[in-house]
């Protein structure tokens, strides 16, 4: 994973690919995939998982369509971990999610 870009190197079918969820990818997810797919990622249908993964690969590998990923059928749990890590980076960055300090909680 690159701390500067948020790109994750993933292995699919013996090949390495760069996975990244930039703002354009996150917008596509909101437009093209069920909102429930991100809320409860493990419950997503395989077709939704393939679409989520293809969106994250699209910037560097536009040939990796959801249809092609369905044909490759990589292990679902492994793919869910890849998607989860890359989307978390897109939202929280390299520092990850930090708990609010006591003073910040009171301001809200």
Give the gist of this structure.
The chain is mostly helical. It has 6 helices and 2 strands.
Oligomer: single chain
Largest sheet: 2 strands, antiparallel
Proportion of residues in extended strands: 5-15%
Query: How many domain regions?
Result: 1
Query: From the alpha-carbon coordinates, what is the Rg to the nearest angstrom?
Result: 15 Å
Care to count the β-strands? 2
Strand and helix order: EEHHHHHH
Mean pLDDT: 87
Overall helicity: 40-55%
Secondary-structure blueprint:
Elements: E1 8-12, E2 15-19, H1 23-32, H2 35-39, H3 46-57, H4 66-72, H5 76-92, H6 102-107
Antiparallel strand pairs: 1-2
Helix pairs in contact: 1-3, 3-4, 3-5
Protein architecture, described:
The chain is mostly helical and 108 residues long. The chain has one domain (8-93). 53% of the residues lie in helices and 9% in strands. It is built from six helices and two strands. The chain has helices at 23-32, 35-39, 46-57, 66-72, 76-92, 102-107; strands at residues 8-12, 15-19. Strands 1-2 form a two-stranded antiparallel ribbon. Helix 1 (23-32) runs antiparallel to helix 3, helix 3 (46-57) crosses helix 4 and helix 3 packs across helix 5 (76-92). The chain is globular, with a radius of gyration of 15 Å. It starts with 7 loop residues before the first strand and ends with a helix. The mean pLDDT is 87.
